[in-house]
Amino acid sequence: MVATMTTSRLVRRAALGAAFALLLGPAGAARYTVTGAAPVDAGPVAAREMALRDAEYQAAVFKGAHLQSSQRLDNAGSSESGRLQPDAGPAPTYRVLREGVRNSLYEVTVEMDDAPLSATAASRGRTPAPGPVCNEASARPLKRRVIATYFHLLRSAQAPDLPGLGTGVPAELARRLSLRPAFSGLSAATLALVADPQQAEPLEGAETVREIGRREDAQFVVAGRVIDTSVTGRRMRPVWFGSPANGVDPSARYEGPFAGLLGTGVQNQASERQFEIELWIYDAFTGAVLANDRLAETARGEVMPARPLAFGTQAFWNSDYGRAVSTVMDRAVTRLAETTGCIPFAARVARVEQRRVYLNAGGLDGLEVGDRLLVYKPRPATMIRSAGNTRELGVPETLVGDVELVQVQPKLSIGVVNNARLAVEAGDHVRFVPRR
User: Fold this and answer.
1) Model confidence over 116-141: pLDDT tens digits?
2) Which of 37, 283, 300, 374 has the fewest CB within 10 Å, making it most exposed?
3) Any bridge partners for residue 105, and if so which?
4) 16 dihedral zone (left: phi>0; alpha: psi -120 to 50; beta)
């Protein structure tokens, strides 16, 4: 196999040092074998998982990848490094052909099958939606715990008719997240991450995020700001005198001939209104910002009702403006799912008694007796920061071993540590290993 590169530095076929054998399969499909390997330092369970991930990575690069390169300049000169990054696309199905330890490495050889697009999708000329596709998505769903915190209103004067907006947005995000099988949404709507919403950046909330994660046993934290709720369009409408005039510009009343005939008049009322939020998604273990997006929608019609409607009520959602807000809420939930979908389920070690460990997650989170989780020891004293500034990127972790669950309660699990090369302590992290 020969690796080729176009002018856009796109690699479509790459020789990776592992054995690929391309076989004949169904029309539009391809079968091939690939071998992944990993050191056995942290035990066979951790080594097998790492070897499978290595095989998946190599197979993804085989299908198509782009070259990411970086260059470093210092007093000693310059150096350059590169890495093949797989393109987004459907995850292949596979079966394990053979596995075992060889030369201090755990090797797994798998046969993979790339299924073609379905006839229905192909007939409609559609391709799979872009974005991450993870093998864990097909496994038993585990509920990642997400805490939604207060959303600051940058221009509160724009929303006198929307009482409870700052606390209503996170409460609604938590509710909609909980409707998805992979999330448990919790609202901390009165808790603000940053002191000055006008000037603050998401990174300023990192320490508070880590504290919330420890205190609330959360894996992710959501926060943000309501950027815009302004009226962006108006039109003249007939009104009855004495009727409520919410959304009406008092200076734009018609007072010409026949004004007031039969108790009617014409006023300039709001007919178009914006709803825009800034969405911050954090990893609660490290405080790292995973996403910082702006989501917006424009409502048309009755966008400022005659009387204020409390955010989140059925009357609010039935209004033209409420439907636009609902669209933004759905986009926010989808964005969070896309951002966190490939991050494994994680929990914390709450207590250790010799080889027995107690985890802060249980049956309500989807765990079962017999599940295995990899144990990682964070090194908070070595927080990694971006070169040239103080932006925190994350905390290095050391793979320690694995835990097998022997008892699962609704909010608690008890496991036995295997193959630990370091002492497991309270505060260490565990990540789920799917059964495959």
Assistant:
1) 444 434 444 444 444 444 544 445 78
2) 300
3) 39, 102
4) alpha
Chain-centroid distance of CA 103 in Å reads 38
Pairing of strands 429-433, 10-11: unpaired
| DSSP states along 366-420 | T--TT-EEEEEEE-GGG-EE-TTS--EEE--EEEEEEEEEEEE-SS-EEEEEES-
Secondary structure letter of residue 426 according to DSSP: T
> What is the side-by-side strand order in the sheet with 30-39?
30-39, 105-114, 93-102
CA proximity to 44, closest of 369, 347, 396, 372: 372
What's the rounded Cα separation, in Å, for the pair 364 and 93? 29
Cα 316 from Cα 394, distance rounded (Å): 40
Token pair, residue 345, equals 């389920």
If you search the block for the tokens 């919410």, which residue do you land on? Answer: 246
Q: What's the mean pLDDT in 81-93?
A: 55
Q: Beta strands 220-228 and 144-153: pairing type?
A: parallel
pLDDT band at 21 (very low <50, low <70, confident <90, very high): very low
**CA dist 44 to 50, 54, 146, 271, Å?**
10, 15, 32, 64
The secondary element (H helix, E strand) that includes residue 119 is helix 119-123
With 0-12 / 13-18 / 19 or more C-beta atoms within 10 angstroms meaning exposed / middle / buried, residue 210 is buried
Render pLDDT for 196-207 as a digit per residue (tens, 0 to 9).
777 778 878 888
Rounded-to-integer distance, Cα 87 and Cα 164, Å? 43
- Which residue type is seen at 160? P
8 Å CB contact between 198 and 154: yes
Rg (Cα) of the chain, in Å, rounded? 27
Q: What span, in angstroms and rounded, lies between the C-alpha atoms of 58 and 18?
A: 8
Whole-angstrom Cα distance, residue 229 to residue 417?
Answer: 53
- For residue 385, what are its two tokens? 């920061």
Measured distance CA(198)–CA(185) in Å, rounded? 27
Contact of 157 with 196, CB cutoff 8 Å: no
| CA separation for the pair 213, 207 (Å, rounded) | 10
